[in-house]
Each structure stands twice: as structure tokens, then as C-alpha cells.
Specification:
Elements (H helix, E strand, L loop, with lengths): L3 E3 L7 E3 L7 H12 L3 E3 L1 H23 L7 H12 L8
Antiparallel strand pairs: 1-2, 1-3
Helix pairs in contact: 1-2, 2-3
Length: 92
């Protein structure tokens, strides 16, 4: 499954799959690339990341990366939902 696409290295870029996203450190690196507009995460990629790391794990990655820079997990969940093009999940 295609999780994300990064424009580098030129000319073909990099396709990220499940094998590339096994740790929170991998997610932080991907978020860093997204933050500087070098990468995009697919909707299916978001679904995979949420399933593997949970919203809490992704929020932890974002706090390290500061891609979204959210002040709460609820705000982060809304930002992720916006990236996915759907309504934010209810946080418990």
C-alpha cells in the first residue's frame, strides 16, 4: 500500500509503504518532509498510520515534528481529518 510520496530524490521521488513506517521515528521523519512540502500522505496512508500508531502515537510524532503544531490531541485529530478530507474522529 502507498502510504506517502516524497518528491526526492529526483527525478522519480520515493514511495513510502507499510515497511517504511514501523516506528514513531519513521512517522516523525515523514511529518518533517510533509511540513516542508516534500511529501504527501495518502488517505489510505493516514488510515494505516492511525491503525498502527493510534491518534495518540501520531500526536506524539507531531509534537516532535511540529508539522501541525496543535495544542491538543483534539485539535490534532481535526487537522488529520482535514488532511483526509473527512469529519474528525471523536476523541475519548
Amino acid at each position: 500500500m502507498k502510504i506517502a510520496y516524497r518528491i526526492y530524490p529526483l527525478p522519480n521521488g520515493t514511495i513510502y509503504t507499510e515497511d517504511d513506517m514501523q516506528t514513531v521515528d519513521d512517522v516523525v521523519r515523514l511529518f518533517d518532509y510533509c511540513q516542508i512540502l516534500e511529501a504527501n500522505i495518502t488517505k489510505e496512508g493516514w488510515e494505516y498510520l492511525i491503525g498502527k500508531f493510534g491518534m495518540n502515537g501520531l500526536y506524539e510524532a507531531d509534537m516532535r515534528s511540529e508539522w501541525f503544531g496543535c495544542d491538543s490531541i483534539e485539535e490534532f485529530a481535526e487537522a488529520v481529518a482535514g488532511e483526509m478530507g473527512r469529519k474528525a474522529p471523536v476523541m475519548e
